[in-house]
Specification:
The chain is mostly helical. The protein has six helices and three strands. A hairpin with a 7-residue loop joins strand 1 and strand 2.
Length: about 150
């Protein structure tokens, strides 16, 4: 049993019953499983967009200037460092006070690329990405990775 006070335990037991499971532990496993499935569906949707070209890297800068994100980075960032193998996830540049502009990538598209290109499942891609990509500091020009929230949510 999870170590909680009596009132919280009653609530968890009720929720477990409502979800059709016998114990709060099973409830947590089921909730975690459903959350993971939801995340995997989002990654799969983004992967389909990357592969089909629907999710091409487009943003306000490209629409206004006619440049691709790579051209924008090459023209705007003096010493750009790019994330190898994630060209399709490049969305532009990001800048903030006191820091030089850096290349900006769509995080979900990077995960989708790892899944599609390297045959990883969602968990493997997440772990690899967190350790080997985000965890790779190469100085002030280290790229940034954004989690993009779809419009309308």
């Amino acid at each position: 049993m999870i170590a909680v006070d009596a009132e919280t335990e009653k609530i968890l037991v009720k929720w477990a019953s409502d979800w059709g499971v016998a114990t709060p532990e099973e409830l947590l496993r089921k909730a975690a499983s459903e959350y993971a499935q939801s995340c995997m569906k989002n990654v799969a949707r983004n992967a389909k967009e990357v592969v089909s070209g629907v999710g091409k890297t487009a943003g306000i800068a490209d629409e206004q200037s006619g440049m691709t994100p790579l051209q924008l980075v090459e023209e705007s960032v003096e010493e750009a460092t790019l994330a190898d193998g994630f060209e399709d996830a490049l969305i532009g540049i990001v800048e903030w006070f006191g820091h030089p502009p850096v290349a900006l990538y769509n995080r979900e598209k990077c995960i989708a690329i790892l899944m599609e290109r390297d045959g990883m499942d969602w968990e493997e891609a997440e772990e690899f990405f967190g350790f080997n990509v985000i965890g790779s500091y190469v100085g002030e020009s280290t790229p940034a990775f954004a989690t993009i929230v779809p419009s309308g949510l």
